[in-house]
Structure to design on (618 residues):
């Protein structure tokens, strides 16, 4: 049977050591639920960084799982963000998760040039993983959240990061569709020219073992019949593991549409950072937040090395 | 019960006179099926423009429905396209449908400055109508197919055309979501600045009775819960009739995703032209091609006047 989130959770049970997740400002009930579910299902341990003004909010969780939960206190939200990032830098935590604070505040700490999590010169991006009932396997895609106007260097970074995530998940020869609304390579759509360069570099072995094709639309990438009708045939057509979208608007529309109208379960995390960073959005379901932690914890240390390069 | 394609078909049965559809080069079995279904369900009459080289392909259809089907012969595909456009210009046909020919050939005839169907200076665009099982009503959106890099004048044209289509369908006060990946109005995303201008003009009464809001993402536009979580409240949030997308890539991704993963039935046609033009894509289902004809035939003459303005 093809890979799904349940399999990933199963693998986490087989870890020798639990991954350590640091949560910045876990003040809301949704974050509490995700932490409790992770503890109950035994997939991770936690460091909860709370503001001194709210010392009691996580106490029931710590009391229920005293061996798996540490609580750190900070003077302010900004301080909590900095402390959490430092814990990851110092290898006292493996994964960073946003709780109840403004995304900008956390990102400022993550992107700090001296003390942050993004090595100098590296592109910050985002990967989403969808489990769609009507698709045969997990489907990864980028970038629905971070890079506003991607160019070739961003596409190449996304591709490298996401390939590493695929390989972490056990997809050794990922099938990558470079998405556009047309199959034609066309100066009218400049990204399609960048796609040609990515395909050439892939042929030259720059990205390891993979199948890559495009431009093609979402339906051609994920539905064999649509490819047949158009006379297209490649290992990618109808069988994509990974979709690279031409811009944030199209990727975001895909994200929202499969979760709303395709009943998809979603996971997501930042890429390019030294360690996985999970930034749930307010409109994400509790399941989606939990699966994002599962995804982040699945990134093994050895594999993270390749995933950040 | 909310409007769906079945209701639209029902309305066509109540027409005093059937709409006349001219089909350019109906040489393939899918086009034949759509024509036969339309004839059987009594929604339209047909003029079939065939090449002389293929005189027999539509003869069985003409023999089955001699009163409802006329056949015209042309010397070439290009001539067939020109003849069909001329029939619409001369008011001998109400709707133009593409059969088995290259889209570019038909578009050249449609866009001809002297003898085509697009009045001088008018923007050509496209509207799609989706019937999604998990959404409570028909959902219109633009532009998944025509305008490669829309700017304010294109957005305003799409909005005007699509509002006219909504009103044709009986949606008198359409709820319009201006879609983006963010709710913030932001110079980083220049289209969001254009959205502000459209909302101002709407407030000033430029577009008639409507509710318009945005930027907002697809989920916020179509799911009340997502809006609540984000603290957004407007007549549009969770209740959109019409989505205006920021670019063709995002709109196309939405189109392909709801049809593949959302089990949506789709219809579509060009807008801005003197009369509806239906250009089915090879990967569209027979249902989708049929519903496109239903949509096109629903545009009443009086309403077409407003829809082209």
């Amino acid at each position: 049977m093809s890979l799904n989130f349940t399999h990933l959770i199963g693998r986490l049970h087989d870890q020798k050591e639990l991954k350590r997740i640091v949560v910045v400002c876990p003040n809301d009930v949704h974050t509490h639920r995700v932490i409790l579910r992770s503890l109950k299902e035994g997939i991770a341990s936690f460091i909860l960084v709370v503001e001194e003004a709210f010392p009691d909010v996580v106490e029931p969780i710590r009391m229920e799982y005293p061996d798996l939960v540490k609580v750190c206190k900070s003077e302010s939200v900004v301080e909590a963000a900095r402390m959490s990032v430092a814990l990851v830098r110092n290898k006292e935590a493996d994964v960073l998760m946003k709780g109840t604070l403004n995304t900008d505040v956390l990102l400022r700490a993550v992107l700090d040039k001296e003390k942050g999590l993004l090595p100098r010169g590296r592109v910050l991006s985002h990967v989403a993983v969808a489990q769609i009932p009507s698709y045969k396997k997990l489907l990864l895609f980028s970038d629905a959240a971070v890079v506003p106007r991607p160019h070739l260097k961003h596409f190449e970074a996304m591709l490298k990061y996401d390939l590493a995530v695929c390989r972490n998940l056990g997809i050794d020869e990922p099938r990558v569709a470079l998405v556009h609304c047309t199959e034609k390579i066309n100066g009218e759509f400049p990204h399609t020219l960048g796609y040609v360069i990515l395909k050439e570099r892939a042929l030259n072995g720059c990205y390891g073992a993979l199948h890559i094709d495009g431009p093609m639309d979402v339906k051609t990438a994920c539905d064999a019949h649509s490819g047949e009708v158009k006379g297209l045939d490649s290992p990618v057509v109808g069988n994509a593991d990974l979709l690279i979208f031409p811009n944030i608007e199209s990727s975001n529309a895909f994200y929202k549409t499969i979760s709303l109208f395709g009943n998809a379960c979603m996971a997501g995390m930042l890429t390019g950072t030294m360690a996985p960073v999970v930034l749930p959005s307010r409109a994400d379901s509790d399941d989606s937040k939990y699966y994002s932690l599962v995804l982040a914890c699945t990134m093994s240390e050895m594999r993270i090395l390749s995933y950040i390069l």
Summary: Chain A has a mean pLDDT of 93.
